[in-house]
Amino acid sequence: MAVLGKMPPDGFERLAQRLLREAGFTKVEVRGKSGDGGIDGVGVLRVNLVSFQVYFQCKRWKGSVGAKEIRDFRGALQGRADKGLLITTGHFTSQASDEATRDGAIAIDVIDGDRLCELLKENRLPRPPFTSDRPISPKRKGPRCRTQRMCSL
Prior knowledge:
This protein is of the alpha/beta class. It has helices at residues 2-6, 9-22, 67-77, 94-100, 113-122, 143-151; strands at residues 26-30, 41-47, 50-59, 64-65, 83-88, 91-92, 108-111. The radius of gyration is 15 Å and the shape is globular.
């Protein structure tokens, strides 16, 4: 988890992009820049005959993400998305979880640090490199070692 917290913001966003692609999303783009309006990226998830445009936000936080951050993200989604996904290295307060699933509002799924590490391990991510397009060095032991190092407490 410490390694995830030390990643540059754009590296963490690209890691989220790769995770979403592994989960079956298509057309996943990272848009995160300063002044991005709270949107770090977007992808399309197709479920049977229906496609959903899902915007995502990444937060490399040690502490908790509260209801305010969920509301702010939802505000950025208004008129743009069918669904939102907020990914953090921290955890969500109970109020944030409640806000994410509030009736009558755009649904926001949340992935906390523990679940993020589970997903990274399941998908054997990151497969180096996660911060550039350099070729993989033959000296590397493989993605599993790096993922275990990233998520071990």
